[in-house]
Predict the structure.
Amino acid sequence: MRTATKSARAAVASAARAAVGPVVKIAAAPATAAYHWAEDVHAMLVEAGIRQVALVPDAGHSALIRLCEADKSMVVVRLTTEEEGVALLAGAWLGGEKGVLLMQSSGVGNCINMLSLPIAASMPLLMLVTMRGDHGEFNAAQMPMGNSTQAVLEATGVICKRADSAADVPEMVSSGLRLAFNTFRPIAILIGQRVIGAKDFRKLTKATGDINE
Amino acid sequence: MNKPLRRREVVKELLKKRGDMLVVAGLGAPAWDITSAGDHANNFPLWGAMGGATMIGLGLALAQPKRRVLVITGDGEMLMGIGSLATIAVQKPKNLSIVVLDNEHYGETGMQITHTALGVDLAGMAKAAGFPRTLLGATDKDVQRVKAMIESGRGPVFAQLKVDAEKLPLVLPPREASYIKNRMRISILGPDALHQ
């Protein structure tokens, strides 16, 4: 829009505001705002003997990913697509190792047919899924998969537990570890977008900062 | 002109004197092929999970670094999980070998052609991903080369062997995945596997 005048741009911005309504800041639950769950979850994974950490990154997992990468007792396997992780951890279990699979909700769709493997073979699988298309999402492309993540997983036979506050996350991961490895089935812990926070892409057009954020 | 390789003979040769090698087979013909060579507690033949054979092999190879792990799969199955070549290449498991029996067709669904019939070079893709040892072959000599590569323990190895697109009688492995899983876990980990 090289030829757009200042007033034309202002009119567009004003129309956009009218379309979406007032901008509401989406934040984590106030009572737990200072607490991040990553260190407690990492400690739980170590205690449970988790060795193979398979992942497609998500911003919501970045703190946990850094902890796992720094942990010499863990092997971090970066995947090209999430279903690779489902197959990887089936192989790990065959060979006597435990693992965890980290992904964003959009990656759940990639996993569905591969989940037939741990389901048919009664293998433990713990998936930690950070939710998009959930609480205050900005990006329309995230909505179809985010809104159907739990329904699709459950229809496939995966048990889902949700964490909607930071304090809930370690509790649910602990539950998930026990359910997966004591009852031999895939378990997904869905970490709500209320915990992660919703990013506003418009702000990111201006901001620069830590590449890890 | 060399006569075309026959998949069951190739597999029989690769699994001869297998020792404690662990074998994962992709769904369809490769699963029937490894069973034809002799059902075994260290076999994990797939009935589904298309595109997952190589990654099961990676998980197993990382968990059991002292054992050789061989994934035998088809060209269609490999194409579905082609990104795993990049994932495996960066992990560099020395004990993992992948052998694709490339008949250039989807054999279980009516012999439709796959991309390899139209020139896609899987071994070239593995090499470009970073596999240190790759081979594209079609002869008995190539089968012996692959066998030596598997035994070298200097993987990850990727071999693509062109085989005849023949339709063979199915040789079915045990059907229940939980049984196949427990059989392999007990073989690797001992009877304690059932109490973990």
The interface with chain B takes residues 51-52, 75, 77-81, 83-97, 99, 113-114, 116-117, 120-123 of chain A (CB under 8 Å). Residues 29-204 of chain A form a domain with the Rossmann fold fold (CATH 3.40.50.970). Chain A has one domain: 29-204.
